[in-house]
Design a protein that fits this description.
Layout (H helix, E strand, L loop, with lengths): L2 H9 L3 E7 L6 H12 L5 H7 L5 H13 L7 H14 L2 E8 L2 H5 L4 H19 L2 E7 L6 H13 L5 E6 L12 H9 L3 E6 L5 H9 L6 E3 L7 H10 L3 E3 L1 H7 L11 H7 L3 E3 L4 H4 L3 H10 L5 H13 L5 H15 L1
Parallel strand pairs: 1-2, 2-3, 3-4, 4-5, 5-6, 6-7, 7-8
Helix pairs in contact: 5-7, 16-17
Length: 337
Amino acid sequence: MDKSEFTNLLLNVPKAELHIHLEAVITLSSVKKLYKKCNGAEMTKEDQKALFAYDDLNGFIKSFLKVQELFTSEDDFNLVFDDLKKYLVENKINYCEVFFAPTAFLKKGFSYEKMVEIFHKKITEIKEKENIGIKLLMDVSRTFGCENAMNNYKLLKEYPCEDIIGIGLGGAEQKGPAKDFAPVFELAIKEGYKAVAHAGEDVGPESIWDAINALHAQRIGHGTTAIQDEKLMQNLVDTQLPIEICITSNTFTKAVVKEAKDHPVRTYYDKGMLLTINTDDPVFFKTTLIDEFWICYKELNFTLEEIKQLVKNSFNASFLPDSEKEEWCKKVEKAFN
């Protein structure tokens, strides 16, 4: 099957995506609009090249923060949600759990309450017009320390929103060990919020252990270095703790794997781990969810039957009610058949 046939097949299959960052679906067109609004001048090709120039995880995070710096008001999130809708529609993604990181915007003086109002308005609009479900996870961000993460969580509590179902830990993994954020995660879980964490993206398996034991994470983002620890891999098999795999992201940042064919996702699947396929940051890494499934098929020798299972996994590993997971999985089965 060539890529065109594969794409046509996947476009007719319901899908969910569980690891994607809100600002990372912004299109170049929107970046240019924000740049002009922020700087009072058109964005040059040199500016564009500099903004998207990075060759490791820390370089990418700096570029991500630079994009956030282009926002000048809460209303700019309307652009981002329009781009998110476009991405979801084009990839036929029916349900999505999206990270949003408020810290940089709060430091700019944005109102959290106003941001959340816009989020709710746009998510409701997308549901009504496209029948696509979206839930948000607040990335409390390890980059700015535990006190900042706790302050973010307090805002989540102060301004409750039905669209925001939990917290996540993203950011510079080497600068913010997962265990440092245990107080925030313990409180969030105690108070009924979902909790997920990036771990093992560019730090060893000890980071994943910390996400499991200290944060009690309900999903692990990336988990790339689990391959270095047989005991950890067996634990992930036994517990069926979902792993959010982001192949292109991991090869782009080159922290652990340099080429897609060397990604441990094949080994993980064969061992029996519960895996989901995701883009992480589609605009920054020039990928789509269908591209990621194509890499599994073409570069990592996943069969169509296994691709079908990976698609189902994304619904089963989501925070949807069990009845909805079951319904979506039936639709996936029907679409493949």
